Amino acid sequence: MIMIDTGDRIAAKAAQMARPEFIAAYPITPQTVIVEKTAEMVESGELDATYVRVESEHSAMTAVIGAATTGIRTFTATSAHGLALMHEMLHWAAMSRLPIVMVNVNRALGPGWNIWADQSDALSQRDTGWVQLYCANGQEIFDTIIQAYRLAEFEDVQVPVMVNFDAFVMSHTSMPVEVPEQAEIDAFLPLWKPLWRIDPDDPVTFANMLPQSEYGGMRKNLHEGLLNARARWPQVYREWKERFGADHGELIEELRCDDAEYVIVAMGAFGAEARVAVQQLRQQGMKVGLARVRMFRPFPDEEFRRMASGKRFVVIERNVSPGAGGTIYSELRSSLYGYANSKVQGFIAGLGGRDVTYEDMCEMVRKTASGKAADVEWWGIQD
């Protein structure tokens, strides 16, 4: 079946087909359509789930955690300040090793108030212990939400997953998506078999006080769970590709990187513009490729190191880590330190939803090639 709809409604359709048994919801622009649509599905009987309307995003994550501890599949969605309000409970979900899947529609944080695309909301939560995946089109939104459940529920993973896509650019833009039959999704994503759950007939102690000697080991175990997620993701991706044909790239999507002298590194909706920029610059005689990050956390270190030899990476990102620069820029520089004489150039662009075109990206690459760019450039911002 071909579905033509907005990113938010595509996300809701994917959530429905993953068969969650519990949904907690609190509205926030531009995510609200997701929880509205899932509410309609539950009301109409299209989705057999308990749907709970809560008083805040903090409560939404708390409710999902409570439901997940009983051993059932859960879903929620949020954006920007809603995600920030969940911060305490994001740590709780990860340390509890609950395979929760949540959609986050990337939106700017205030003040000043702004409802447009900006990835600083999710990237400010990078150390909470959640896998973070980023999408560049409607088909990838659908596929990634289903894949996220499969990834999270592996016995050696058991961590929550956040699926991200850009506000309005994707959440409110209609795109065609191929939707498989429910039976095909069920074959790919069987029922979750929890390793533990709260059961009155088989009591367990959950989230008790830990002595100093035990706490560090628990954190290390979470770290290892995320590393296992990175190792498992190619398996999930390849099985999906074999079953359904969709190919978005594994941890990163590579385009013409083999012979590239300059590699644009982008994430989310910027990936689509970067594809056109690569085509334009190639026609102008510049050897340029694209590495679009799909999995930001855990970061795909080895994939970048593999392609690094002699390349200049041009990171174009819609986020900022104040005092450090761009978040992807910082991660990539750390990953490549001492590897293959590679260099990293950073551009912070499009904050608060400001438009960034492929022409802008071409100019960023040309400025990098000229040697006139600072280590980190703020694109389109007047001093």
Name its key features:
383 residues; Rossmann fold; 2 domains; seven-stranded mixed beta sheet; six-stranded mixed beta sheet
Architecture overview:
The protein has helices at 7-17, 32-44, 57-68, 80-85, 87-95, 120-123, 138-152, 182-188, 212-244, 270-283, 301-307, 327-336, 358-370, and strands spanning 2-6, 22-25, 50-53, 74-78, 101-106, 131-134, 161-166, 174-178, 252-255, 262-267, 288-293, 295-297, 312-317, 343-348, 376-378. The protein has 383 residues and is an alpha/beta fold. It has two domains: 2-244, Thiamin diphosphate (ThDP)-binding fold, Pyr/PP domains (Rossmann fold, 3-Layer(aba) Sandwich), CATH 3.40.50.970; 252-378, Rossmann fold (3-Layer(aba) Sandwich). The strands form three sheets. Strands 3-2-4-5-7-6-12 form a seven-stranded mixed beta sheet, sandwiched between helices. Helix 2 (32-44) links the parallel strand 2 and strand 3. The termini are far apart. The model has no long low-confidence stretch (mean pLDDT 96).
User: Uncertain segments of ≥5 residues (pLDDT<50)?
Assistant: none
Order of helices and strands: EHEHEHEHHEHEHEEHHEEHEEHEHEHE
- Enter the CATH topology name of the largest domain: Rossmann fold
What is the tally of beta strands? 15
Number of helices: 13
What is the correct CATH architecture of the largest domain? 3-Layer(aba) Sandwich
Name the average pLDDT: 96
Strand order of the largest sheet: 3-2-4-5-7-6-12
Biggest β-sheet, characterized?
7 strands, mixed
Helix fraction by DSSP (H/I, runs of at least 4): 40-55%
Strand content: 15-25%
Radius of gyration: 21 Å
